[in-house]
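Researcher: I'd like a candidate sequence for this fold, 112 residues long. If you have to choose between options at a position, lean toward the conservative one.
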């Protein structure tokens, strides 16, 4: 009688162990699916940020294709440090001596 009780106890523990193992596999596969779908969503969002619509496409004679992108949609400005960057069309200052015609030395007129 003790052997029958002992074998039923082992069988019961084996069934519980198999059920626990199956539930673990199911939960891991669901977690893996969620992780893969989250990763696919992140990749898609990253590609959407990188792919900028071209304003104009130019094909030059040697076969290269150039896509023109609006200046505010340049990929370089997607960097977090350039998020609030203001694009200056002209410099806000001119370094002294670079654009002053009076300070440019003319070597032809100074020769003896």
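Model: Candidate sequence:
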């Amino acid at each position: 009688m003790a052997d029958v009780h002992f074998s039923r106890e082992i069988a019961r523990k084996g069934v519980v162990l198999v059920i626990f193992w199956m539930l673990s596999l199911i939960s891991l596969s669901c977690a893996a699916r969620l992780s893969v779908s989250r990763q696919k969503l992140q990749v898609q969002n990253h590609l959407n940020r990188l792919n900028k619509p071209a304003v104009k496409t130019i094909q030059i004679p040697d076969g290269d294709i150039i896509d023109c992108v609006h200046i505010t949609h340049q990929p370089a400005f997607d960097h977090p440090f350039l998020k609030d960057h203001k694009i200056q069309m002209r410099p806000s200052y001119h370094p002294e001596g670079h654009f002053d015609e009076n300070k440019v030395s003319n070597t032809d007129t100074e020769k003896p």
